[in-house]
Write a structure and sequence with these properties.
CATH superfamily of the largest domain in chain B: HUPs
Strand content of chain B: 25-35%
Strand content of chain A: 25-35%
Number of helices of chain A: 6
Shape of chain A: globular
CATH topology of chain A: Rossmann fold
Radius of gyration of chain A: 22 Å
Largest sheet of chain B: 7 strands, parallel
Distance between the termini of chain A: 61 Å
Helix content of chain A: 25-40%
Mean pLDDT of chain B: 94
Distance between the termini of chain B: 74 Å
CATH topology of the largest domain in chain B: Rossmann fold
CATH class of the largest domain in chain B: Alpha Beta
CATH architecture of chain A: 3-Layer(aba) Sandwich
Oligomer: heterodimer
Low-confidence stretches of chain A: none
Mean pLDDT of chain A: 93
Number of strands of chain A: 15
Strand order of the largest sheet of chain A: 11-10-9-12-8-1-6-7-13
Order of helices and strands of chain B: EEEHEHEHEHEEEEEEEEHEHEHEEH
Structural class of chain A: alpha/beta
Chain lengths: 259, 337
């Protein structure tokens, strides 16, 4: 079985702070990481590799620095890494990003494509379903379990109110939740090995796409403006004895007609 | 002649024949947008044997309802719903289509946007109609990015329809207008069953005891400082006395102490109760994104520099393990008066 895993390098958004004066994001010193849901996707692929036997290829679109994350994927156990990196991809929204990824994957041999549910920088959850549509493949999102069968896959999907079991016939795209697939660590041997292996860097010329549909030109949506979130005026903070704190809370709750 | 794209469409999500709250919220917002554009609000209802729910949508804000009532649409399945919706879009040419940012909306909308080759904005918290740079009225969708650290306003200048998924719990429903009249019509898509590659085998509903925290008027919420299940029992006792529910930060879900259904925040639920009491929650921006619209926020935390205090109306620096049980007893007495 050939499995393709789509991964994205993202800033660790839990480490991002806002400059209180300028109101801009402070990105200096914020580490770049493999997007957590994508790492869960890689973990699922590696588990299938162990149980079913599979070749795992990781594909990412991003700047040359994403090389580091792809080496992490190799060190975890992936067999091949491809980085789509080309200025012509720049400024892509989800539709143009999914188009480029689909154009790459179309040139590869695969039985299953796995992606993370959503990336922690954009939080759109749109790229994988759009990619599935470009490739004319069925999709199942919010996946918490997947098994290979003779005809395809049996997949569990987590909704707000229920867990569904679905049967997929043939090839498909799955988007997975990090919480369901706790990722393994890189092995020391894997790390050493990963630095001696090749991360293939592909340009737009190497994939099956029309150039007019890439990057900014191929993106129906545009960012009109971005701005830091305005937080409301902070309230009062008290350091009191426990007894006084309890009385203060009760009086405020009565004032607000909550009790 | 170029197609004229008009009216604001709402995908009226239903599960097991029950219209979801988010559909009513979207109808509320769609009324504002349609009024600005001088156009109509159209609800689209997909399912099997659901035509009788159309009047409900009219009373909650739709001018028109398009019903697609077919056995293929009994349960939500991506391809079936995408075929029905894409044919409807081709036929009706909507200006705007709104979906709830639920596991259904966020699965369907991108598939559909790619099929009709238009732009989609995810998980919006604000939708407006404003003049663009040429003075023409356009549709602006605002959403949190970078884990809620930044807000981005996105436009879709040339492609139609303009599509957005909208976070549940953010927009306001309208008051029901009983007996309101509207136009209800049916739409019959042609299904290509050869593309139906996914079959639903089983649906296991979550434990009913896991009531929806987004409906709670009072939430006693716990974070890392609660430590464990015993800690949450103290919060539960307070919630019981006050007629509220317990919720959780992501940390306690990741630690396996609380179920994901109780999680508030960017990857959990958005809540706006009358009272949100954050106990031992430091207040990562992802958590604040899910609760800062609460009417009254009390935070109890040992660390006086915890970011949660920046959104709290009342902040108490102290030990929740002592304060919460005392408060429970005190409120019990207060309510017995």
């Amino acid at each position: 079985m050939n499995i393709i895993v789509c991964v994205k390098q993202v800033p660790d958004t839990t480490e991002i702070k806002i400059d209180p004066v300028k109101g801009t994001l402070i990105r200096d010193g914020v580490p770049s990481i493999m997007n957590p849901d994508d790492k869960g996707g890689l973990e699922l692929a590696l588990r299938m590799k162990e149980t079913e036997g599979a070749t795992v290829t990781v594909v990412s679109m991003g700047p040359p620095q994403a090389d580091r994350m792809l080496r992490e994927a190799l060190a975890m156990g992936a067999d091949r890494a491809i980085l789509l990196s080309d200025r012509r991809f720049a400024g892509a929204d989800t539709l143009a990003t999914s188009y480029a990824l689909a154009g790459c994957i179309r040139t590869l041999d695969y039985d299953l494509i796995i992606a993370g549910r959503q990336a922690i920088d954009g939080d759109t959850a749109q790229v994988a379903p759009e990619m599935a549509q470009h490739l004319d493949l069925p999709q199942v999102s919010y996946v918490i379990d997947a098994k290979k069968t003779d005809k395809g896959f049996i997949v569990k999907k987590e909704n707000e109110d229920c867990v569904q079991t679905l049967e997929v016939e043939g090839k498909c795209v799955l988007t997975v939740l990090a919480s369901a697939f706790k990722a393994r660590y890189m092995t020391v041997a894997g790390i050493i090995d990963a630095y001696n292996r090749e991360v293939e860097v592909w340009s737009a010329d190497q994939i099956d796409v029309e150039e007019s549909k890439l990057g900014l030109k191929g993106s129906p949506t545009k960012v009109h403006k971005s701005f830091p979130k305005s937080l409301k005026e902070p309230g009062e903070v008290f350091e009191l004895s426990e007894e006084e704190a309890v009385e203060l809370i009760v009086s405020r709750l009565k004032e607000k007609h909550i009790i | 002649m170029e197609k004229e794209y008009k009216n604001v469409y709402v995908f009226a999500e239903q599960r097991n024949g029950v219209i979801q709250n988010v559909a009513y919220e979207l109808l509320g917002k769609a009324n504002d947008l349609a009024a600005e554009l001088g156009q109509k609000v159209v609800a689209v209802l997909l399912g099997d044997g659901i035509a009788d729910k159309a009047q409900d949508l009219i009373e909650m804000g739709a001018d028109d309802v398009v019903v697609i009532d077919r056995p293929e649409l009994k349960d939500y399945l991506t391809e079936q719903y995408t075929q029905a919706m894409s044919q409807l879009i081709d036929h009706c040419s909507p200006r705007i289509v709104l979906f709830g940012a639920t596991t259904i909306g966020r699965d369907l909308a991108p598939r559909l946007a790619c099929r009709v080759k238009s732009g989609l904005v995810a998980d919006c918290t604000k939708l407006t109609i404003e003049p663009d740079k040429d003075g023409n009225l356009d549709f602006f969708s605002t959403r949190p990015a970078f884990g809620g650290n930044l807000m981005a306003t996105i436009v879709c200048p040339t492609s139609r329809p303009q599509m957005s998924t909208v976070r549940p719990g953010v927009m306001q429903k309208r008051t029901r207008e009983v007996g309101k009249k509207g136009n209800i019509q049916r739409f019959e898509p042609t299904f290509d069953a050869s593309k139906f590659k996914v079959r639903l085998i089983e649906t296991k509903m979550n434990d009913n005891k896991v009531a929806d925290i987004s409906n709670a008027k009072i939430l006693i919420s716990g974070g890392r400082g609660v430590h464990d299940k015993e800690g949450f029992q103290k919060l539960q006792a307070l919630a019981d006395v006050m007629g509220g529910m317990v919720s959780s930060s992501r940390a306690m879900v990741d630690a396996g102490v609380m179920d994901h259904a109780y999680q508030v925040g960017q990857t959990g639920k958005t809540v706006r109760p009358n009272l949100y009491m954050a106990c031992g929650i430091s207040g990562a921006i992802q958590h604040l994104a899910g609760m800062e619209e609460s009417h009254y926020i009390i935070a109890i935390n040992k660390d006086k520099y915890a970011p949660i205090f920046s959104v709290a109306d009342l902040g108490i620096v102290g030990d929740l393990h002592k304060i919460v049980p005392m408060l429970t007893e005190r409120i019990k007495k207060e309510l017995e008066k």
